[in-house]
Inverse folding.
């Protein structure tokens, strides 16, 4: 795991000291007597974001220059915020540089730019990554220094958030007040960021601060205008990994009963973006009923598991390129999850309970694996994740953005020993997967088929025209494992075993007196799902798991095999029918259906929470249509609706939500109530009600 960075804050509130007659030492300058209070407010809120107060020097407590000089070279700090609220002054008709004024109204001995130079002019010495928050007049001057703007952004260690432009004045402590308001909003989860995002993107924070400054201006009629300014960077540069604003929700696991603590060696793999928990959860098979992955519910697929295990164990075995396909929920990720957990050296011991009691063979330990879960990742991210695993001691190798990513990765393969097997799961859920196939996977597959190649490739994906060339290449070599083509009898046995294990381990059917009922229920579920496979648009295993979830949560247990068989025979074949069962179970939760209905109209990658709070209100029975209270929305998203959601991370670090199945979205659209609870408008393609559009625009961050 990446070593925890040490964050510190130095906040200086510098008022002017009254003269003997009680006036300001500088004619025309306000005393700014509230500056220390605003300084303390900024320090207080930053403490909730893991910032420690930087201790002052033993000498003069008002040696502001010395305190900043000491802070920006501190050997014990990795990330530093220097906040200054007071007076600023330009050296007009001379250098035009910005100086901070001390309590007597005199300029400090050196300009603000000298602190930036003290950081940037010593590239071989440790310097904290530093953000200067300057709530002074003319604060934008150091933000637009020409030499700093020309500097390679990746090497910059000094950044500026300024209250005004380089020629403008600041008023009313607005920047300091806005910083506190925005960070308090993040701390209190009035705005949430995705748990996978370590740091809130600075652009998101700056935009929110700018809006808040404008709000402060609007609160006092006749106030003079003011606009913040930040360090200048090229428009294409991504600053999302700057570490100034830690995400309070980072690393939190949704309330789904799944573990969040991992050994450090496995957590490091999470930092490398290959998502080991995905393989552990899918391989465990307990996710549909909210159980720990380590119980090991994987069932069926013995033939496929045996073939792929033998292939992984024999480095010289062909074919060199393999794919696993099948409809959604057929077990592609579960199969790869078991293989990866059993074979990867860092996962094998930790996940032993997951795979050791399986009926079929599993692979042995394999130190020549590079693995990635492709969901939500783009070409550069997948390339970087694999490169980090191939060369963990060379950060430069994983910098991403290679002109030819396939050649770049192939060049990182070891020259001796067995070939490396690259495993890519959920290709169809990646960002622009067609680009990943064209630029990375297809060239790698062709290299893998060359005599003496140092590479083998295993990819899982749904059948899709975008992947036709890759799937055809695998099929030509006899390397395509299609889970949807398995024999019905084999699938039926696997589904029955899966349901029986889920029922046996916990809940009312775990009792020995219900063993016969449990077996009858499992057999009936499997018979209906597999016997009607042509009508089932999603995988038998996923359908079975979700139905068991419903049975354990809502239905009274059956005591006789006959009752259990009848209950198992009622498993819905369609996702909408299963949704109706779940909605009936949550009849006391008035916000669940409105939230799901609003998400049925989500466009593109999904809908953010603040928009969803407004959009869902259009489908409630409240004619006033106030936005849903955020705590109630969070409860629905994190618990009651989570089975039906897909989540993605937006560019601003927040979470986007959409329904995981288009058939579900169409059904909810067709059955969406009109304004104020009127009957459904009808039609799967019904337009978004005007109230949704208007309220969503109002709620857009």
């Amino acid at each position: 795991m990446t070593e925890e960075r040490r964050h510190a804050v130095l906040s200086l509130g510098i008022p002017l000291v009254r003269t003997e007659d009680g006036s300001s030492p500088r004619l025309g300058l306000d005393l700014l007597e509230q500056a220390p209070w605003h300084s303390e407010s900024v320090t207080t809120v930053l403490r909730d974001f893991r910032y420690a107060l930087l201790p002052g020097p033993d000498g003069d407590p008002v040696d502001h220059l010395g305190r900043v000089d000491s802070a920006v070279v501190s050997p014990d700090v990795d990330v530093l915020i220097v906040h200054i609220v007071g007076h600023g002054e330009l050296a007009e008709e001379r250098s035009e540089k910005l100086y901070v004024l001390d309590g007597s109204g005199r300029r400090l001995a050196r300009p603000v730019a000298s602190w930036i130079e003290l950081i940037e002019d010593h590239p071989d010495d440790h310097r904290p990554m530093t953000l200067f928050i300057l709530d002074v007049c003319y604060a934008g001057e150091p933000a637009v220094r020409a030499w700093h703007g020309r500097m390679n952004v990746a090497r910059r260690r000094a950044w500026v958030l300024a209250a005004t432009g380089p020629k403008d004045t600041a008023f009313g402590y607005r920047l300091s007040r806005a910083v506190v308001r925005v960070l308090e909003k993040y701390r209190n989860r009035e705005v949430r960021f995705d748990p996978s995002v370590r740091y809130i993107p600075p652009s998101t924070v700056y935009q929110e601060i700018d809006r808040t400054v404008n709000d402060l201006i609007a609160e006092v009629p006749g106030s003079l205008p003011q606009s913040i300014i930040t360090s200048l960077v090229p428009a294409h540069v991504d600053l999302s990994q700057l570490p100034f604003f830690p995400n309070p929700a980072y690393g939190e696991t949704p309330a789904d009963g799944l573990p969040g603590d991992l050994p450090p060696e496995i957590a490091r793999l999470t930092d490398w973006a290959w998502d080991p928990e995905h393989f552990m959860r899918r391989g465990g098979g307990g996710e549909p009923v909210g159980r720990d992955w380590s119980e090991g519910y994987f069932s069926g697929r013995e033939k496929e598991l045996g073939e792929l295990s033998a292939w992984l164990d024999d480095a010289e075995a062909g074919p060199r390129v393999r794919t696993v396909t099948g409809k959604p929920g057929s077990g592609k990720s579960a199969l790869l999850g078991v293989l990866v957990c059993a074979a990867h050296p860092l996962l094998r011991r930790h996940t032993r309970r997951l795979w050791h009691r399986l009926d079929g063979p599993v692979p042995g330990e394999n130190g020549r694996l590079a693995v990635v879960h492709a969901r939500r990742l783009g070409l550069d991210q997948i390339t970087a994740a694999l490169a980090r695993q191939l060369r963990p001691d060379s950060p430069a190798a994983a910098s991403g953005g290679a002109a030819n990513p396939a050649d770049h990765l192939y060049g990182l393969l070891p020259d001796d020993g067995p070939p490396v097997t690259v495993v890519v799961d959920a290709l169809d859920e990646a960002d622009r997967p067609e680009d990943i196939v064209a630029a990375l996977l297809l060239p790698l597959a062709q290299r893998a088929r060359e005599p003496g190649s140092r590479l083998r490739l295993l990819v899982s994906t749904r059948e899709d025209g975008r992947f036709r060339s890759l799937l055809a290449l695998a099929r030509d070599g006899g390397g395509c494992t299609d889970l949807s083509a398995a024999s019905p009898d084999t699938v039926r046995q696997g589904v029955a075993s899966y349901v029986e294990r889920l029922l046996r381990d916990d809940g009312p059917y775990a009792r020995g007196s219900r063993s016969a009922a449990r077996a009858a229920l499992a057999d009936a579920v499997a018979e209906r799902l597999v016997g009607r496979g042509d009508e089932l648009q999603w995988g038998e295993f996923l359908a079975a798991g979700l139905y068991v979830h419903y049975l354990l949560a809502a239905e009274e247990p059956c005591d006789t095999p006959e009752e259990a068989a009848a209950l198992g025979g009622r498993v819905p074949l369609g996702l909408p029918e299963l949704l109706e069962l779940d909605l009936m179970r949550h009849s006391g939760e008035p916000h669940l259906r409105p939230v799901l209905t609003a998400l049925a109209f989500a466009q593109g990658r999904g809908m953010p929470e603040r928009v969803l709070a407004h959009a869902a209100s259009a489908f409630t029975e409240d004619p006033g249509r106030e936005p849903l209270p955020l705590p109630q929305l969070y409860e629905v998203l994190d618990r009651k609706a989570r089975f039906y959601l897909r989540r993605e991370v937006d560019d601003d670090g927040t979470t986007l939500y959409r329904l995981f199945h288009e058939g579900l979205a169409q059904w909810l659209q067709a059955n969406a109530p009109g304004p104020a609870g009127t009957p459904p408008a009808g039609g799967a393609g019904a337009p978004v009600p005007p109230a949704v559009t208007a309220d969503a625009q109002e709620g857009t961050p």
Remarks:
- The longest strand covers residues 7-13.
- The domain at 586-699 is CATH 3.30.420 (Nucleotidyltransferase; domain 5).
